[in-house]
Design brief:
This protein has 339 residues and is of the alpha/beta class. The protein is 42% helix and 14% strand. The chain has eleven helices and 14 strands. The protein binds pyridoxal-5'-phosphate. Pyridoxal-5'-phosphate (PLP) binds next to α3.
Length: 339
């Protein structure tokens, strides 16, 4: 089965081998405070910083999920409340989580702005120039960016936000259960000024631990091991970005031209906001249902729609672990089914 599901998504083929290696070497049975395991954590963090070109003065912590990052930002970086200019299901979910912990009050301005860079539910993205506008419009706010389905797939201008996060089951090509949380010196100062240490995952605890390549609790050691290995293997983000954007452009052209007479069309009309990593395709409920079923029989897993677009779209992941050959097979299948 080849999968275009946008998360959990296709793994890099080496993952099975790396997992076996992690078990056989005994590393995942070692204490997470042992020098051997700390070297793995250090390697994973260094790998993320190097391959993704993260500024030297930004910090990296590893947690369990993007959902956990939503709560960490609300707990540890939000003194008043947060604002969420969302366009889809994940942005709304983030707002709901954040506002349960820090309800907005009419007499107070929000001190955190939460932006979903790549809205996986509908295949839109906030480009870096739009992010720069948010930054300028909210100069005193902490800008936090959910880049779950784009980090490690496209180049980010890290300077445009104080916090960036992604779980690894999307563009990192790894199994779920680990998330990368990147934060600026300004975010750390804000956390220190707030001084929140009430939770096992308070940012200040995480920071104290990760500055020594340790964790406040027993971490997902296998996940960290795999992150270290995948970061050793992938090319630099500039090279990955070029390929991702080229393939996205090819996908959009394919639907606009080759599939013009099919019962399917792109969900997003404005090319400026179309995602480079998740392509959303719309059609009638019955056509969507049928194409997913026929694809599955042909050994191809299309992504279901999500949220408001659950039954009227399917989604195609354009993640780095997917090969050009797999893309070719899906195109061939779509061409044939459109005849
Ligand atoms: C998948 C996804 C999430 C949720 O990630 P978890 O690891 O399940 O917490 C959050 N935001 C976006 C944009 C996503 O695509």
């Amino acid at each position: 089965m080849i999968t275009f599901y946008p998360g959990p998504a296709k793994l890099y083929p080496q993952v099975a081998e790396w997992a076996a290696e992690a078990c056989a070497s005994g590393l995942v049975s070692m204490n997470h405070r042992s020098p051997e395991f700390m070297a793995v954590t250090e390697g994973a963090i260094r790998g993320v910083k190097e391959k993704l070109n993260v500024p030297d003065d930004y910090h990296v912590a590893l947690v369990s999920s993007a959902t956990e990052c939503w709560e960490i930002i609300a707990q540890s970086l939000t003194e008043r409340s947060s604002e969420h200019p969302y366009t889809g299901a994940f942005g709304k979910k983030w707002m709901d989580y954040a506002h349960r912990l820090r309800p907005p009050r009419p007499d107070e301005l929000p001190d955190v702005l939460g932006v979903v860079q790549n809205e996986t539910s509908n295949g839109t993205q906030v480009r870096m120039d739009a992010l720069a506008q948010y930054r300028r419009a909210h100069p005193d706010a902490i800008v936090a960016v959910d880049a779950v389905s784009s980090m490690a797939g496209i180049v980010m201008d890290w300077s445009l936000a104080d916090v960036w996060f992604a779980s690894v089951q999307k563009c990192f090509g790894l199994p779920a259960g680990l998330a990368v949380l990147i934060y600026s010196p300004q975010a750390l100062s804000r956390a220190q000024a707030i001084g929140e240490r009430d939770h096992y995952n308070s940012l200040l605890f995480l920071h104290d631990n990760f500055s020594q390549f340790q964790t406040p609790y027993t971490p997902n050691g296998l996940g960290i091991y795999l992150l270290n290995r995948v970061m050793q293997t992938v090319p630099s983000i500039a090279a990955v970005d070029e390929r991702t954007r080229q393939r996205a452009a090819d996908w959009y052209r394919f639907f606009e031209q080759d599939m013009a007479d099919s019962p399917f069309r792109l969900l997003i009309n404005d090319p400026q906001v179309r995602s480079d990593t998740v392509i959303a395709v719309a059609g009638s409920e019955v056509n969507i249902k049928t194409i997913k079923a026929v694809a599955k029989e042909a050994g191809i897993l299309l992504g279901n729609g999500y949220g408001d677009w659950k039954t009227t779209t399917f989604r195609i992941a354009n993640f780095p672990a997917i090969t050009d050959e797999e893309v070719g097979r899906l195109r061939e299948f779509l061409m044939k089914s459109g005849e």
